[in-house]
């Protein structure tokens, strides 16, 4: 039986993520630049015995893979956007790519530490001039990639309602951006180490800078793992919008209290929620939906009404137990 026009009014799209075409295109360019420089640095590191340069090259190889993963995630999220198997859209494909990229960063940090310690124990002669030249070119490539990715990374949702900026980030793009920034930082460390070794005979700086770079990469990886993991596990009940939902219900002219509340992210700065209310018989779920829609980040709202026979005890919701407190 065909749905009537009136019934159609109650349906809506579950595509909550508008995508990021500019970021996807720029990330493709970053993949190409990174892959070319990766080959140059790994080759130069082996030829000229620079641990810092070699570490930077292997580090860049993981970035080429991670950036490629980011591009694939954008494409997959776009391709399956209308697939009904995805109950709340495909945005989390991008988040999963960001989480996976962070794991790559952790792995690279570990390899950098291992190789640097090995080089500290068994020093080898370094061809400084050639290694420095390759390191400088690598840094320029990293800065070019960062420039390609920075606009999309910083552009989204500036100044929205004063909310935590992390909730409005493109985590897939953030992972790509962190990869190239980490590469730039390790390139700087490699160049400093090589200059120190060339002019002051401090050959030990090369592996030490490799260890320092590994620590920096690990710290950034931890931040990305934390933020993307929270989204994947729906661990966002501390988001500012949760307090806003409670405030709306508390201030409603129709008295009600929250007995259960679930909130999770379905897009960049976009949330779905299920709110279970204890209220009076005349209450209407659509009324509370309209009250909550004042917060634009709530794009999918489900209201459950539990009728309390008799008069609600004033507007003090603490008089009624709240399971979601």
The H-and-E topology, N to C, reads as: HHHHHHHHEEHE
- Strand sequence of the main sheet, in spatial order? 1-2-3
Strand pairing plus helix content: what structural class? Answer: mainly alpha
Q: Regions with pLDDT < 50 over 5+ consecutive residues?
A: 1-8, 153-165, 315-325
Query: What value does the Rg take, in angstroms?
Result: 26 Å
Major sheet = 3 strands, mixed
Measured between the Cα atoms of the first and last residue, the distance is: 43 Å
Tell me the number of helical segments per DSSP (H or I, 4 or more residues long): 9
| Chain-averaged pLDDT | 78
Strand content: 5-15%
Coarse shape = elongated
Number of strands: 3
Helix content: 55-70%
